[in-house]
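Researcher: Next sequence.
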Amino acid sequence: QVQLVESGGGLVQPGGSLRLSCAASGLTFSNYAMSWYRQAPGKERELVAGITRGGGVITNYADSVKGRFTISRDDAKNMVYLQMNNLKPEDTAVYYCKAVSGGGYWTYWGQGTQVTVSS
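Model: Next structure:
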């Protein structure tokens, strides 16, 4: 059974940092492209950052987080991370981890972790 478990969310002041983690199990992790999405109340889920499979050579980011967020992966540990710096109130959302197999045949989501940026 495939599981994606996010952690690391919480309450942080504007300008602060958080590091989200996503632990994957039940799949051949290196074969999956990984990404982080977020969903704020009343808004659609949106892509935050993505990283390719097989070592993660290519990354992509939403314009709103470029220069502030960094996605990375550790295939030896079946982990993907999202380092979030200079957080803003508009970054407040539930953050989800997503795994997509080569060719897009299989897609899995985590349960989400809440990030709240507020003074």
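Model: The two ends are 40 Å apart (CA to CA). Residues 67 and 85 are 9 Å apart (CA to CA).
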